[in-house]
Design brief:
- The structure is a homodimer of 155-residue chains.
- Chain A is an alpha+beta fold and 155 residues long.
- Chain A has one domain: Hotdog Thioesterase (Thiol Ester Dehydrase, Chain A, Roll).
- Chain A is 21% helix and 31% strand.
- Chain A contains three helices and six strands.
- The radius of gyration of chain A is 17 Å and the shape is elongated.
- Chain A starts with 15 loop residues before the first strand and ends in an 8-residue tail after the last strand.
- The model of chain A has no long low-confidence stretch (mean pLDDT 95).
- The interface between A and B is large, with 42 and 42 residues.
- Chains A, B: This is MaoC family dehydratase.
Protein backbone atom coordinates (compact mmCIF):
# COMPACT_ATOMS: atom_id res chain seq x y z
CA UNK A 1 0.00 0.00 0.00
CA UNK A 2 1.03 3.61 -0.42
CA UNK A 3 -0.26 6.90 0.96
CA UNK A 4 0.90 8.75 -2.16
CA UNK A 5 -1.64 10.41 -4.46
CA UNK A 6 -0.06 9.17 -7.70
CA UNK A 7 0.91 5.51 -8.19
CA UNK A 8 1.29 3.51 -11.44
CA UNK A 9 -2.43 2.67 -11.51
CA UNK A 10 -3.46 6.35 -11.38
CA UNK A 11 -1.47 7.38 -14.45
CA UNK A 12 -3.80 6.43 -17.30
CA UNK A 13 -2.96 7.13 -20.95
CA UNK A 14 -4.48 10.48 -21.97
CA UNK A 15 -4.24 11.97 -18.49
CA UNK A 16 -2.86 15.54 -18.62
CA UNK A 17 -1.36 17.30 -15.59
CA UNK A 18 -0.67 21.07 -15.83
CA UNK A 19 2.52 22.74 -14.55
CA UNK A 20 2.60 25.87 -12.40
CA UNK A 21 4.35 29.03 -13.64
CA UNK A 22 8.06 29.72 -13.27
CA UNK A 23 9.57 33.11 -14.11
CA UNK A 24 13.24 32.91 -15.06
CA UNK A 25 15.58 35.64 -13.81
CA UNK A 26 18.86 36.75 -15.37
CA UNK A 27 20.57 35.92 -12.07
CA UNK A 28 19.36 32.29 -12.20
CA UNK A 29 20.44 31.91 -15.83
CA UNK A 30 23.92 33.23 -15.05
CA UNK A 31 24.31 31.18 -11.84
CA UNK A 32 23.46 27.91 -13.63
CA UNK A 33 25.71 28.81 -16.57
CA UNK A 34 28.69 29.60 -14.32
CA UNK A 35 28.40 26.17 -12.73
CA UNK A 36 27.49 23.97 -15.68
CA UNK A 37 27.47 25.66 -19.12
CA UNK A 38 29.64 28.76 -19.33
CA UNK A 39 29.01 29.55 -22.99
CA UNK A 40 28.91 33.35 -23.54
CA UNK A 41 25.22 33.50 -24.58
CA UNK A 42 24.25 32.02 -21.20
CA UNK A 43 26.45 34.39 -19.15
CA UNK A 44 26.27 37.80 -20.73
CA UNK A 45 23.42 39.97 -22.04
CA UNK A 46 25.42 41.43 -24.93
CA UNK A 47 26.83 38.07 -26.00
CA UNK A 48 23.30 36.66 -25.91
CA UNK A 49 21.96 39.47 -28.08
CA UNK A 50 24.79 38.95 -30.57
CA UNK A 51 24.08 35.18 -30.73
CA UNK A 52 21.37 33.42 -32.71
CA UNK A 53 19.44 33.08 -29.41
CA UNK A 54 18.71 36.83 -29.41
CA UNK A 55 19.19 37.59 -25.69
CA UNK A 56 20.55 36.33 -22.38
CA UNK A 57 19.31 32.74 -22.80
CA UNK A 58 19.15 29.85 -20.35
CA UNK A 59 21.32 26.83 -21.06
CA UNK A 60 19.14 24.07 -22.50
CA UNK A 61 20.19 21.97 -19.50
CA UNK A 62 18.97 24.74 -17.20
CA UNK A 63 15.62 24.63 -19.01
CA UNK A 64 15.57 20.86 -18.40
CA UNK A 65 16.34 21.36 -14.69
CA UNK A 66 13.60 24.02 -14.35
CA UNK A 67 11.17 21.74 -16.16
CA UNK A 68 12.09 18.93 -13.72
CA UNK A 69 11.18 21.22 -10.81
CA UNK A 70 7.84 22.00 -12.46
CA UNK A 71 7.18 18.29 -12.97
CA UNK A 72 8.12 17.56 -9.36
CA UNK A 73 5.88 20.29 -7.98
CA UNK A 74 3.01 19.29 -10.28
CA UNK A 75 2.77 15.67 -9.13
CA UNK A 76 6.02 13.76 -8.58
CA UNK A 77 6.21 15.22 -5.05
CA UNK A 78 3.21 13.09 -4.09
CA UNK A 79 3.93 9.99 -6.19
CA UNK A 80 5.61 6.58 -6.03
CA UNK A 81 8.27 7.64 -8.59
CA UNK A 82 11.37 5.43 -8.66
CA UNK A 83 13.32 7.48 -11.21
CA UNK A 84 13.70 7.35 -14.97
CA UNK A 85 15.83 5.37 -17.44
CA UNK A 86 16.26 8.31 -19.82
CA UNK A 87 14.89 10.85 -22.26
CA UNK A 88 13.61 10.24 -25.74
CA UNK A 89 14.01 13.01 -28.28
CA UNK A 90 14.06 16.25 -26.26
CA UNK A 91 13.81 19.39 -28.38
CA UNK A 92 14.80 22.90 -27.37
CA UNK A 93 12.47 24.65 -29.83
CA UNK A 94 12.84 28.28 -28.75
CA UNK A 95 15.31 30.11 -26.48
CA UNK A 96 14.33 30.73 -22.84
CA UNK A 97 15.23 34.40 -22.31
CA UNK A 98 15.68 36.23 -18.99
CA UNK A 99 12.25 37.44 -17.84
CA UNK A 100 10.32 34.65 -19.57
CA UNK A 101 7.60 32.87 -17.59
CA UNK A 102 7.50 29.12 -18.20
CA UNK A 103 4.49 26.87 -17.85
CA UNK A 104 3.20 23.77 -19.62
CA UNK A 105 1.83 20.31 -19.02
CA UNK A 106 2.60 16.63 -19.18
CA UNK A 107 0.45 13.94 -20.79
CA UNK A 108 0.58 10.18 -20.22
CA UNK A 109 1.24 8.44 -23.56
CA UNK A 110 1.41 4.80 -22.47
CA UNK A 111 2.27 2.51 -19.57
CA UNK A 112 3.28 -1.06 -18.88
CA UNK A 113 4.32 -3.23 -15.91
CA UNK A 114 8.04 -4.03 -15.82
CA UNK A 115 8.65 -7.76 -16.00
CA UNK A 116 12.13 -7.26 -14.57
CA UNK A 117 10.86 -5.37 -11.50
CA UNK A 118 7.68 -6.81 -9.98
CA UNK A 119 5.45 -4.13 -8.46
CA UNK A 120 6.92 -1.38 -10.65
CA UNK A 121 5.62 -0.07 -13.95
CA UNK A 122 6.99 2.26 -16.63
CA UNK A 123 4.88 5.30 -17.61
CA UNK A 124 5.85 7.27 -20.73
CA UNK A 125 5.01 10.99 -20.71
CA UNK A 126 5.04 13.71 -23.33
CA UNK A 127 6.21 16.87 -21.54
CA UNK A 128 5.53 20.29 -23.03
CA UNK A 129 7.06 23.56 -21.72
CA UNK A 130 5.62 26.84 -22.98
CA UNK A 131 6.44 30.53 -22.45
CA UNK A 132 4.22 33.52 -21.61
CA UNK A 133 3.26 33.87 -25.29
CA UNK A 134 2.05 30.27 -25.44
CA UNK A 135 4.98 29.25 -27.63
CA UNK A 136 6.52 25.81 -27.08
CA UNK A 137 10.08 26.23 -25.79
CA UNK A 138 10.79 22.58 -25.04
CA UNK A 139 9.16 19.21 -25.62
CA UNK A 140 10.28 15.69 -24.83
CA UNK A 141 9.23 12.14 -24.26
CA UNK A 142 10.38 10.61 -20.98
CA UNK A 143 9.56 7.28 -19.30
CA UNK A 144 9.39 7.25 -15.47
CA UNK A 145 9.13 4.21 -13.15
CA UNK A 146 6.36 4.14 -10.51
CA UNK A 147 5.55 1.62 -7.81
CA UNK A 148 2.11 0.08 -8.08
CA UNK A 149 -0.48 0.96 -5.49
CA UNK A 150 -1.26 -2.67 -4.77
CA UNK A 151 2.30 -3.58 -3.80
CA UNK A 152 4.05 -0.23 -3.41
CA UNK A 153 5.84 0.77 -0.25
CA UNK A 154 6.17 4.52 0.31
CA UNK A 155 9.04 5.58 -1.94
CA UNK B 1 37.60 34.17 -39.36
CA UNK B 2 37.73 32.92 -35.81
CA UNK B 3 40.47 32.62 -33.22
CA UNK B 4 38.75 29.59 -31.65
CA UNK B 5 40.42 26.19 -31.73
CA UNK B 6 37.28 24.27 -32.70
CA UNK B 7 35.06 25.39 -35.60
CA UNK B 8 32.69 23.32 -37.79
CA UNK B 9 35.52 22.35 -40.16
CA UNK B 10 37.62 20.89 -37.32
CA UNK B 11 34.94 18.45 -36.11
CA UNK B 12 35.37 15.53 -38.47
CA UNK B 13 33.31 12.34 -38.16
CA UNK B 14 35.21 9.79 -36.05
CA UNK B 15 37.02 12.44 -34.00
CA UNK B 16 36.97 11.54 -30.27
CA UNK B 17 37.57 14.11 -27.52
CA UNK B 18 38.13 12.84 -23.93
CA UNK B 19 36.55 14.43 -20.86
CA UNK B 20 38.41 15.28 -17.67
CA UNK B 21 37.44 13.70 -14.35
CA UNK B 22 34.70 14.99 -12.07
CA UNK B 23 34.17 13.58 -8.57
CA UNK B 24 30.61 14.01 -7.32
CA UNK B 25 30.07 14.94 -3.66
CA UNK B 26 27.00 14.24 -1.54
CA UNK B 27 26.74 18.00 -0.95
CA UNK B 28 26.53 18.71 -4.69
CA UNK B 29 23.91 15.99 -5.22
CA UNK B 30 21.75 17.35 -2.39
CA UNK B 31 22.16 21.01 -3.45
CA UNK B 32 21.04 20.27 -7.02
CA UNK B 33 18.15 18.11 -5.79
CA UNK B 34 16.89 20.78 -3.39
CA UNK B 35 16.72 23.26 -6.26
CA UNK B 36 15.49 21.10 -9.12
CA UNK B 37 14.54 17.50 -8.26
CA UNK B 38 13.63 16.97 -4.61
CA UNK B 39 12.81 13.24 -4.85
CA UNK B 40 13.91 11.43 -1.64
CA UNK B 41 16.61 9.28 -3.29
CA UNK B 42 18.42 12.45 -4.43
CA UNK B 43 18.22 14.17 -1.02
CA UNK B 44 18.80 11.55 1.63
CA UNK B 45 21.34 8.72 2.08
CA UNK B 46 18.88 6.34 3.72
CA UNK B 47 16.12 6.98 1.16
CA UNK B 48 18.68 6.41 -1.60
CA UNK B 49 19.78 3.11 -0.08
CA UNK B 50 16.15 2.00 0.23
CA UNK B 51 15.44 2.90 -3.43
CA UNK B 52 16.29 0.88 -6.53
CA UNK B 53 19.24 3.28 -7.07
CA UNK B 54 21.06 1.78 -4.08
CA UNK B 55 22.54 4.93 -2.54
CA UNK B 56 22.41 8.73 -2.46
CA UNK B 57 22.10 9.18 -6.22
CA UNK B 58 22.37 12.29 -8.40
CA UNK B 59 19.25 13.39 -10.27
CA UNK B 60 19.55 12.35 -13.91
CA UNK B 61 19.29 16.05 -14.75
CA UNK B 62 22.23 16.74 -12.43
CA UNK B 63 24.21 14.09 -14.31
CA UNK B 64 23.28 15.90 -17.54
CA UNK B 65 24.42 19.24 -16.09
CA UNK B 66 27.73 17.76 -14.87
CA UNK B 67 28.23 16.14 -18.27
CA UNK B 68 27.62 19.56 -19.89
CA UNK B 69 30.39 21.05 -17.75
CA UNK B 70 32.74 18.24 -18.81
CA UNK B 71 31.86 18.84 -22.47
CA UNK B 72 32.38 22.59 -22.04
CA UNK B 73 35.77 22.15 -20.37
CA UNK B 74 36.85 19.51 -22.92
CA UNK B 75 36.38 21.69 -26.01
CA UNK B 76 33.27 23.89 -26.18
CA UNK B 77 35.11 26.56 -24.15
CA UNK B 78 37.36 27.18 -27.17
CA UNK B 79 34.84 26.60 -29.97
CA UNK B 80 32.41 28.46 -32.23
CA UNK B 81 29.39 26.69 -30.60
CA UNK B 82 26.04 28.37 -31.21
CA UNK B 83 23.97 26.07 -29.00
CA UNK B 84 21.95 22.92 -29.65
CA UNK B 85 18.46 22.08 -30.91
CA UNK B 86 18.01 19.12 -28.55
CA UNK B 87 18.94 15.65 -27.33
CA UNK B 88 18.29 12.30 -28.98
CA UNK B 89 17.80 9.22 -26.88
CA UNK B 90 19.65 10.00 -23.65
CA UNK B 91 19.96 7.00 -21.37
CA UNK B 92 20.71 7.03 -17.66
CA UNK B 93 22.16 3.52 -17.57
CA UNK B 94 23.49 3.35 -14.01
CA UNK B 95 23.01 5.54 -10.95
CA UNK B 96 25.61 8.23 -10.16
CA UNK B 97 26.29 7.73 -6.44
CA UNK B 98 27.95 10.18 -4.04
CA UNK B 99 31.73 9.68 -4.25
CA UNK B 100 31.68 8.47 -7.88
CA UNK B 101 34.24 9.94 -10.27
CA UNK B 102 32.84 10.64 -13.73
CA UNK B 103 34.79 10.76 -16.96
CA UNK B 104 34.09 9.83 -20.57
CA UNK B 105 34.38 11.08 -24.11
CA UNK B 106 32.48 12.45 -27.05
CA UNK B 107 32.72 11.24 -30.64
CA UNK B 108 31.63 13.07 -33.80
CA UNK B 109 29.08 10.93 -35.66
CA UNK B 110 28.22 13.19 -38.61
CA UNK B 111 28.01 16.81 -39.71
CA UNK B 112 26.29 18.96 -42.29
CA UNK B 113 26.01 22.65 -43.23
CA UNK B 114 22.66 24.21 -42.31
CA UNK B 115 20.86 25.53 -45.38
CA UNK B 116 18.72 27.75 -43.16
CA UNK B 117 21.72 29.38 -41.49
CA UNK B 118 24.60 30.20 -43.87
CA UNK B 119 28.00 29.92 -42.19
CA UNK B 120 26.71 27.52 -39.53
CA UNK B 121 26.79 23.73 -39.51
CA UNK B 122 25.24 21.02 -37.35
CA UNK B 123 27.57 18.44 -35.77
CA UNK B 124 26.04 15.32 -34.17
CA UNK B 125 27.96 13.81 -31.26
CA UNK B 126 27.69 10.58 -29.31
CA UNK B 127 28.49 11.46 -25.70
CA UNK B 128 29.53 8.76 -23.23
CA UNK B 129 29.86 9.31 -19.47
CA UNK B 130 31.60 6.60 -17.41
CA UNK B 131 32.35 6.08 -13.72
CA UNK B 132 35.56 5.07 -11.88
CA UNK B 133 34.87 1.40 -12.67
CA UNK B 134 34.66 2.10 -16.40
CA UNK B 135 30.91 1.46 -16.41
CA UNK B 136 28.75 3.62 -18.67
CA UNK B 137 26.45 5.77 -16.52
CA UNK B 138 24.98 7.91 -19.31
CA UNK B 139 25.01 8.03 -23.09
CA UNK B 140 23.24 10.26 -25.56
CA UNK B 141 23.26 11.65 -29.07
CA UNK B 142 23.22 15.43 -29.32
CA UNK B 143 23.54 17.79 -32.30
CA UNK B 144 25.34 21.12 -31.70
CA UNK B 145 25.58 24.11 -34.08
CA UNK B 146 29.02 25.58 -34.86
CA UNK B 147 30.06 28.55 -36.94
CA UNK B 148 32.33 27.72 -39.85
CA UNK B 149 35.93 28.86 -39.73
CA UNK B 150 35.70 30.48 -43.15
CA UNK B 151 32.85 32.80 -42.19
CA UNK B 152 32.63 32.52 -38.40
CA UNK B 153 32.79 35.57 -36.17
CA UNK B 154 33.98 34.89 -32.63
CA UNK B 155 30.97 33.45 -30.83
Amino acid sequence: MTDKKWAFEDLEPGLTIPFGEKTVSAEEIIAFARQFDAQPMHLDEEAGKASILGGLAASGWHSCAMFMRMLYDAFLIDSTSQGSPGITDARWKRPVIAGDTLSGQTTVLERRPLKSRPGIGLVTFRHLVTNQRGETVMEMENPIMFRMRATGAAA
